[in-house]
Design a protein that fits this description.
This protein folds into three domains: 5-198 and 344-453, FAD/NAD(P)-binding domain (3-Layer(bba) Sandwich), CATH 3.50.50; 459-554, Arc Repressor Mutant, subunit A; 569-629, GidA associated domain, C-terminal subdomain (DNA polymerase, domain 1, Orthogonal Bundle), CATH 1.10.150.570. The chain has 21 helices and 26 strands.
Length: 638
Amino acid sequence: MAAAERYDIIVVGGGHAGAEAAHAAARMGARTLLISMSLDALGKMSCNPAIGGIGKGQLVREIDALGGIMGIAADRSGIQFRMLNRSKGPAVWSPRAQNDRMEYAAEVRSLLESTPNLRMRADTVVDLVVEQGRVRGVVTLWGAEFTAGAVILTSGTFLNGQIHVGERRSGGGRMGEGASVGLTAVLQAHGFETGRLKTGTPPRIDGASVDYSSLEEQPGEPHASPFSYLSDGVTENQVSCWLTYTDPAVHGILRTGFDRSPMFAGRIQGRGPRYCPSIEDKIDRFADRDRHQLFLEPEGRRTQEVYVNGFSTSLPEEVQLAALRRVRGLENVHLLRPGYAIEYDYFPPHQLKYSLETKRIAGLFFAGQVNGTTGYEEAAAQGIVAGINAVQFLQGAEPVVFRRSEAYIGVLIDDLVAKGTEEPYRVFTSRAEHRILLRQDNADFRLTERGHALGLAGTERLNRMKARREALVRMREAFSRRSVSPERVNAYLASVGTTPIAEPERLVRLALRPQVDMQALLEAASMSDLSDVRIGSESIARLAEVEIKYEGYLERERDLAERMASLESYRVPGDFDFTGVTALSLEAREKLARIRPDHLGQASRISGVSPADVSILMVLLKGARVSRETPGGDGITD
């Protein structure tokens, strides 16, 4: 064997987690090698051709604010853009884009290839080099050895992957691509706990065989916001999606295949995603519902291939086709590829630190679906954190950890590390208790300075953030100072069902009215010097309105976040003996000993640990602090 090539960081896997991890590490100055089974599959959208969604869109904006690539690739390849939840409060507004699948992957590859310090190799990692509890490198299928100070494993659904269609199954991490065999056993030998999860994907159909005249059109928003703070807008040449429904006859056809379903027959042991169930699971669990929505989503501008969102299935192919042909608009549909389920290995994430470094092997990081998550966005968010912290590890610097009040990235990782997961985990806005602080419109204010300090976010990104922040301050000052006359705004106020004004009123007072949309009011009042102020594609007036309307809520959430941060200041020693604290409940002792929280805040969020248990731990940790701070004392180290 030739002498091993030396790198600072090796990233295993080229999906969404691997792409962000490799880009972040290389941007921060680490000599990085990305090893993927196929370089043609870098950034591949294995399932739906879309980025963002409820909670997921916030993750993409945070990745972008830190200096990641997902938002840029999504904007460049987007064919339809929408802001979801517009009818609700701004805390849950969530951007989503339909993307050209091939263009998205091409953009990811182009962004990676233009990143200094990053090299790539098409190969399969089959072993890790571990010495004295620390990772030292990897060995590939072709016998090559590469050494590094840190390794990031982002192997997605490929570890011992099994694809199921009806009674047929084959090894693979995606349809048409082989599984990765060997790494799970290697990690088990090092003491890692593993499990099996399941996910699935719908059939793809030929759009030329669809009768769109009988379907409901779902157009994009003409002036929707892009994901990236570096983008000035989105394409105006958008492509529509289409909506149709199943019915009882469709459900009846699907039921004829239940006896051959790998899920119902027990051939699949792994648990599937609760919030994205297969169509057979939906009609079995929700038998009282006589129809389910199906969204027909185009895979790109230059292809007729269509993704049938809502019809994820692993039933036999002939059952899938018969059921689809009973759906309105799909009576003559041609099937390009059947839906399938995939079962794969994962590593329960309580085995990780908040940095995503494993507790068992120093310098080894896990990111993406190997940690039990589902979704491109969740994977990419973990990837950028793992990439950042692998560099921090090499430099002997403190890991970068995001609190739940700082970012959805922090919510995601805290949920995984503190609570673990036994089913594919996905982010929702409802998981974030401080979601009014974590809006999609302020991710740059929260994270860009941090990304720039790390060497990840560039100067242009920092300058754009500063320009937005300065424009917001000026806009709020203008709202406080400027007044508007009744004759200019009363017609608008009446149209939205709020009381007209009898004398000139300051804009800030009108902004507090829940019915008032300040952008619309400024346009109605012909105050173009305020309504036309934009940085990129975003209205500064709308951003100022949100902060004014919700100022009281924002202040309250900041206070709550500070109180929670005080709990996180109580660090728990790595060798703390939870089992010996008999005052704790038996369940708390078992859970705490298994997860081994880093601090009291994490302990408080573990299922089965009660407020009484937290109080007992606080007393013990306070006592240890006093002991440490007393001359000659031992005790805890902060």
